[in-house]
Amino acid sequence: MTLRCHSGAPSSWVARFAPLIRAGGGVLDVACGKGRHARLLAQLGYRVVAVDRDAEALATLAGLPGVELREADLEAGSWPFPGHQFAAVVVTNYLHRPLFPRLLETLEADGMLIYETFAEGNERYGRPSNPQFLLRSGELLEAVQGRLAVVAYEHGLVSVPGPAVIQRICAVGRAPAEVALPACFGG
């Protein structure tokens, strides 16, 4: 379920970690909406597959260089990427727990997961408020445990674009020491 209006600007979390994706790699933008992250990733030189069930939202990306569009209902249909692997999977403001294994299987051996969505406690600030669409404490950590190495993880209250409780993770299929961190990490 994709919720919450935003400014159309890419998430600062995605923007922060996108440069760590393997150069020239393919990226799957899950539940991409109007493509704020697909646009950013394509500008950074990645080959992007933007998937969403909303054909009108996808149409806003038509003709964008480096972006392949895929209309699919990830909750009702079969997985549209059998046998495909990506250098990264990006998910924001979307949660459908049965997809966690698929998302991880879709990553290349050294692939990166960048995930950010709403968490328990968000019901105090608006939608989503249904627990079905709110991550439990530590749920993203549990989802990658034993499969990916965590580069960064946060869970807490944010104020932009409005107050919300968010959980987010950046995790890779190799040891964090092998990941060249951007200057903002002091590395």
Written overview of the protein:
By secondary structure, this protein is of the alpha/beta class. It has one domain: Vaccinia Virus protein VP39 (Rossmann fold, 3-Layer(aba) Sandwich), CATH 3.40.50. It is built from five helices and seven strands. It has helices at residues 12-17, 36-43, 55-59, 100-105, 139-144, and strands at residues 26-30, 47-52, 67-71, 86-92, 107-118, 149-158, 164-172. It has a seven-stranded mixed β-sheet.
Précis, in short:
With 187 residues, this protein is of the alpha/beta class.
List keywords for this structure.
187 residues, alpha/beta, Rossmann fold, seven-stranded mixed β-sheet, 7 strands, 29% strand, globular, disordered N terminus
List the helices and strands and how they pair.
Layout: H1 12-17, E1 26-30, H2 36-43, E2 47-52, H3 55-59, E3 67-71, E4 86-92, H4 100-105, E5 107-118, H5 139-144, E6 149-158, E7 164-172
Parallel strand pairs: 1-2, 1-4, 2-3, 4-5
Antiparallel strand pairs: 5-7, 6-7
What's the CATH topology label? Rossmann fold
Unreliable residue runs: 1-6
Looking at the structure, what is the overall shape? globular
Number of strands: 7
Assign the CATH class: Alpha Beta
Share in helix: 10-25%
Radius of gyration: 15 Å
- What does the largest sheet look like? 7 strands, mixed
* Mean of residue pLDDT values: 90
Strand content: 25-35%
Total of helices: 5
Beginning-to-end CA distance, first to last residue: 36 Å
Arrangement of strands in the largest sheet:
3-2-1-4-5-7-6
CATH superfamily: Vaccinia Virus protein VP39
